[in-house]
């Protein structure tokens, strides 16, 4: 899930004409759409209606059974460099890691589920599928492997809504009930999957495109993300990581329909530190040079994510919101005067805590007619809304992301796989 730097720029009311086709989330008339969706969500909320009926073999055995008492596999291990080389062999630092063995094993369990879910997703996602079918496939896989319906999604399961943002939209789009968008052959789709075990969230994303004309765009962003991962380390300044990412990203060009674009980093999106049950903790990892001299520190988890674009390299909020999260510092439920808002907040706190969620998850819990209550929770600062973040219409954006851990003795790229 993307960290957004700076305030989302509300583009409501200055839409440039009608959306160009049924495949783009509407940019205008948000309230009408909200009401229409409320009507739809009643119909679509019947349990099982949008569920994938047969569970594929890859998801039939829970991960805990597959591994029994065996530890989960480590991610990619990278030695620290130069001034921190001593950490590699430090007995004291090794001892520290032994104390954290259970913590690491939970993170690796979530990472292993991430690899399995995305491997299956890659094998089935095809143009012609609805976005709803795509996210259901992924999320049902996560729920099954981690037995979320048995032990509760707060114990282990979905870490945040599955992003499947298309084309000029870079982040924070997932379908709401009634969404009829179908994946097209010429689309560029960012699959951003969050999986957690006891609040240890693995945040990792990749980009799917079927038309080879986008190959260089994807290559640029993959290279930029790997550069950010390579540069990251204890005592490294965030500005230096941003600078390295920017340099690599902008060294690529992409030819689209007779025009050449230099790939731009989306300068107001960034990676972020992660803490238990908190996807966006205190630090932002820029993808351009930004003068932030804050350093990375021992023991921190970071989502290193970069976004490249053929547009302006700047995103604004656009379209209907699907993603939300309870603000950890927001006012308590007891201060709310609207009864529906209070009851809705109870459901939210019980099922998601401070993890991000989307409207489909409320539908699945049997909640109906919640949009006014939800609006009241957003307005009173209890719930934060994360609307889709989009570059200019007609542009294309790509994303790659991994979650890393700055262990005392080495850097571990937890979500690394054979695929990316
Ligand atoms: Co993220």
Automatic annotation (TrEMBL):
Alphabetical keyword list: Aminopeptidase, Cytoplasm, Hydrolase, Metal-binding, Protease
Subcellular location: Cytoplasm
Basic residues: compositionally biased ranges: 7-17
Domain of life: Eukaryota
GO biological process: proteolysis
InterPro entries: Creatinase/aminopeptidase-like (IPR036005), Met_Aminopeptidase_Type2 (IPR050247), Pept_M24 (IPR000994), Pept_M24_MAP (IPR001714), Pept_M24A_MAP2 (IPR002468), WH-like_DNA-bd_sf (IPR036388), WH_DNA-bd_sf (IPR036390)
Catalyzed reaction equations: Release of N-terminal amino acids, preferentially methionine, from peptides and arylamides
GO CC terms in record: cytoplasm
Cofactor entry: Co(2+); Zn(2+); Mn(2+); Fe(2+)
Textual note on the cofactor: Binds 2 divalent metal cations per subunit. Has a high-affinity and a low affinity metal-binding site. The true nature of the physiological cofactor is under debate. The enzyme is active with cobalt, zinc, manganese or divalent iron ions. Most likely, methionine aminopeptidases function as mononuclear Fe(2+)-metalloproteases under physiological conditions, and the catalytically relevant metal-binding site has been assigned to the histidine-containing high-affinity site.
SUPFAM superfamilies on file: Creatinase/aminopeptidase, Winged helix' DNA-binding domain
Pfam families registered for this protein in UniProt: Peptidase_M24
CDD domains, alphabetized: MetAP2
Enzyme Commission number: 3.4.11.18
Residues involved in a divalent metal cation 1 binding: 192, 203, 401
Keyword Zinc-finger appears in the UniProt entry: no
Chief subcellular location: cytoplasm
Broad EC category: hydrolase
Listed transmembrane segments: none
Region of interest (Disordered), ranges: 1-33
Free-text function comment from the UniProt entry: Cotranslationally removes the N-terminal methionine from nascent proteins. The N-terminal methionine is often cleaved when the second residue in the primary sequence is small and uncharged (Met-Ala-, Cys, Gly, Pro, Ser, Thr, or Val).
The family this protein is said to belong to: Belongs to the peptidase M24A family. Methionine aminopeptidase eukaryotic type 2 subfamily.
PANTHER family named among the record's database cross-references: METHIONINE AMINOPEPTIDASE 2
Protein name: Methionine aminopeptidase 2
Upper classification of the organism: Eukaryota, Fungi, Fungi incertae sedis, Zoopagomycota, Kickxellomycotina
């Amino acid at each position: 899930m993307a960290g957004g730097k700076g305030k989302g720029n509300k583009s409501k009311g200055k839409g440039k004409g009608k959306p160009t086709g049924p495949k783009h989330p509407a940019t205008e008339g948000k309230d009408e759409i909200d009401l229409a969706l409320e009507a739809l969500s009643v119909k679509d909320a019947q349990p099982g209606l949008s569920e994938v009926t047969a569970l594929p073999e890859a998801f039939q055995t829970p991960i805990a059974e597959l591994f029994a008492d065996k530890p989960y596999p480590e991610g990619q291990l990278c030695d620290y460099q130069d001034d921190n080389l001593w950490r590699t062999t430090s007995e004291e630092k090794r001892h520290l890691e032994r104390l954290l063995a259970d913590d690491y094993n939970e993170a690796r369990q979530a990472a292993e589920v991430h690899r399995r879910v995305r491997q299956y997703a890659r094998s089935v996602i095809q143009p012609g599928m609805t976005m709803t079918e795509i996210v259901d496939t992924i999320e049902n896989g996560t729920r099954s492997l981690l037995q979320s319906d048995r032990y509760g999604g707060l114990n282990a399961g979905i870490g945040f809504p599955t992003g499947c943002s298309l084309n000029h939209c870079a982040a924070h789009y997932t379908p709401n009930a009634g969404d009829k968008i179908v994946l097209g052959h010429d689309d560029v789709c960012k699959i951003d999957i969050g999986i957690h075990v006891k609040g240890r969230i693995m945040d990792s994303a990749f980009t799917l495109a079927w038309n080879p004309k986008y190959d260089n765009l994807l290559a640029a962003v993959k290279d930029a993300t790997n550069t950010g991962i390579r540069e990251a380390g204890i005592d490294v300044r965030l500005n230096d990581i941003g600078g390295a990412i920017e340099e690599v990203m902008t060294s690529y060009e992409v030819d689209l329909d007779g025009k050449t674009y230099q790939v731009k980093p989306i300068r107001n999106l960034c990676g972020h530190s992660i803490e238990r049950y908190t996807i966006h903790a205190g630090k932002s990892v820029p993808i351009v040079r930004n003068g932030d001299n804050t350093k990375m520190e021992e023991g921190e988890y970071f989502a290193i994510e970069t976004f490249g674009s053929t547009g302006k390299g700047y995103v604004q909020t656009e379209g209907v919101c699907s993603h939300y999260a309870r603000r950890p510092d927001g006012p308590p439920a007891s201060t709310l005067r609207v009864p529906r808002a209070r009851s809705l907040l109870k459901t939210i706190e019980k099922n998601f805590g401070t993890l991000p969620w989307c409207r489909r998850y409320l539908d699945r819990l049997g909640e109906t007619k919640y949009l006014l209550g939800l609006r009241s929770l957003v307005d009173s600062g209890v719930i934060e809304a994360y609307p889709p973040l989009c570059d200019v219409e007609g542009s294309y954006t790509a994303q790659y992301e991994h979650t890393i851990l700055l262990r005392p003795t080495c850097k571990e790229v937890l979500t690394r796989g054979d695929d990316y």
